[in-house]
Amino acid sequence: MLELRPILSALWRHKISALLIAVQLGLTLAIVGNASVVIQERMERIARPTGVAVTDIVTAKFMPVAKDYDRLRAFRRDLDMIRQLPGVAAATVSRVPLTGGGSRTGLHTKPNREVGATSSAQFWGDEQLVDALDMKLVAGRDFTASDITETSFSSGWRPSKAIVTQQLAGELFAGGEALGKAVYLGDEDNPIEIVGIVERNLGPWPNAPDAGNAVFYPAIMDTQWFDYVVRAEPGQRDAVAKLLEEKLAEHDPQRVVTVKTLQEQLDRYYAGDNTMIKVLSSVAGLLTFIVALGIVGLTVFWITQRQKQIGVRRALGATRSAISRYFLLENLLIAVTGILIGVAAAQIFNYFLASEFDQPALPLSTTLSCALILLGVSLTATLVPALRAANISPATATRSV
């Protein structure tokens, strides 16, 4: 307490420079706090379970040269061949989830409804669709060969059976008791019986508001937008990818084949999120470093200006620890002032981001965690100059002018 009065007096004499450091610290806390919550939200989004075997799946797409190419015949011939390849666990032909490309539909629990549909991603595939994606069936049954229809989008065909995700089942029916119930497409009256429920599938767009709502129909569609979805045995993905490209080219040389892993496509989809994480982390680190440099510079400047006073105190019996403690306490007062400014600024800034850009809310716990980190950085930055001040010789200091 005896040191507090001279510290406050010294800060008042240098109030502009002290206030600038406090404001800089406060703005840094506001930016770092909001950056932290965005980084955390993006990291949690990327780390979510997808519901499919991302690391084991290979996809293949082909583009035929001939204009009158029979895709349905090619699909069946290729699938028969692919399923015999060494290292292949299951294969189907469908749209590929988690890649940013697909289609949505609106599902109703009553026929002939035009509004109030539940949005859902939709997939088509044969009896190995669930196995090829390695989705976990939690209720009901899988598709069988007798369920599968070979058709096209222009034929007017409508499914009579479907498998849905648990999330979609919960949104359609109270308590998720969807097994055996019927759903309807748009304003139609054709009932689609839910024969199975899988645990999870994020659908084509993992970042979409309806991610996790997915419905699967038993059909092979005559379209160029479907891929072969091939699940390899664990550890065999790369070997299967190479073999798949070779065998598809040999099987029918009149087409161009493109083979990719699902992990590559998912990484590409999350590229923007990963870039944001890196940029915000770099900005937060840079701002913290700049604040630390400012504190070091200000403390060194004040020590240089006060060498004579420090020498007098040392000559009067002040210990090294007392000198160091003086500057640490002085910096602590500045840091606490800056943190109080920063806590308020962080909440105001977050309110603006949440209302204008739909960013996640900033929990007070995150703000306080960032405040403690910045407080630690501030005191650490002061420590070296404070120890330097403690080592000033009384004789040298008292001779200085």
TrEMBL record:
What does the UniProt entry say about where the protein is found?
A: Cell membrane
Topology within the bilayer:
Multi-pass membrane protein
Q: Which UniProt key words apply to this protein?
A: Cell membrane, Membrane, Transmembrane, Transmembrane helix
What InterPro entries does the record point to?
ABC3_permease_C, MacB_PCD, Macrolide_Exporter_MacB
Q: Which residues cross the membrane?
A: 283-305, 326-349, 361-384
- The signal peptide stretch is none
Main location (coarse class): membrane
Residues covered by the ABC3 transporter permease C-terminal domain: 282-394
Which segments of the protein form a coiled coil according to its record? none
Key word Protein transport present in the record? Answer: no
The residues covered by the MacB-like periplasmic core domain are 74-245
Q: Which family does it belong to?
A: Belongs to the ABC-4 integral membrane protein family.
User: What is the protein name stated in its UniProt record?
Assistant: ABC transporter permease
Species classification: Bacteria, Pseudomonadati, Pseudomonadota, Gammaproteobacteria, Cellvibrionales
